[in-house]
Specification:
The protein is of the alpha/beta class. It is 51% helix and 11% strand. It has two domains: 59 residues; 211 residues, Uncharacterised protein PF01937, DUF89, domain 3 (Rossmann fold, 3-Layer(aba) Sandwich).
Length: 280
Amino acid sequence: MRRECYYCHNKTVEKIITRHKPPVNKVEEFQKNVENYIQHNWNLSNPVIATHINRLGRELLDKKDLYRKEKRDANKLLLNNYNYWKEKVTSSKNPFHTAVKLAVIGNIIDYGAHAVPEKIEEFIEEMLEKPLAVDDSAILEKKVRNANSILYLGDNAGEIVFDKLFIETIKHPNVVFAVRDKAVINDVTRNDARQVGMNELCKIISNGYDAPSTLLEHCSPNFLRTYEKADLVISKGQGNFEGLMNEKRSDLFFLFMAKCQPIAEIVNVEKGSMLIKHNK
């Protein structure tokens, strides 16, 4: 873990404290437990550390979903203008590209250590005009057309509205949408996916674990069978990229924004860049 990642995890802790305002004794206990865990597990991956931090937070506050309100509000906000965004897609010169780009832009909705723009929809409009740092969308479109089955790995609530729009745009008959098994930060669970109507378009499955990522060594046998059999895997979000970036499969695509410097350096782009990246 890099030093920047340490500070990032501490931001997550501070956000949980600010959000829930627990008593001082619980704040101190939470901070002490997190610090102790990090110092004794410095070599673990960031998704694993983030998983444990959120478990400590849920246990300390006795809450199953630390960001339930934020997730529901983000879903509602983007759902309210779903027809507007759908018109943007259908009236564009390349609906596939517009839809997948919106899915990438939606990745900014993250209540962990990263800041969410106050005026989300204005931000989305601005980002639509900016180029992608890595754009393998043409390869992805061809893979979608030729795939018998697609596994789509969901990331955050709110942005799943754009995932839904993208899945609706590709009109593929066999898409499975994967969610987290339990609430972690604002990552999507089965209930969040149902709230936006994802179940009306495709089958929803849990990955069997509560990391803000896809950690195959911890995922359920059912998820792993689906993952291994899929002709195409679309991995959404930086967290999923962190969990799968060392995978050796050519039918894997990453859709995300590089929200921190360490990840930006790994993929050789500027921080804040948008990517549709084929796992070559």
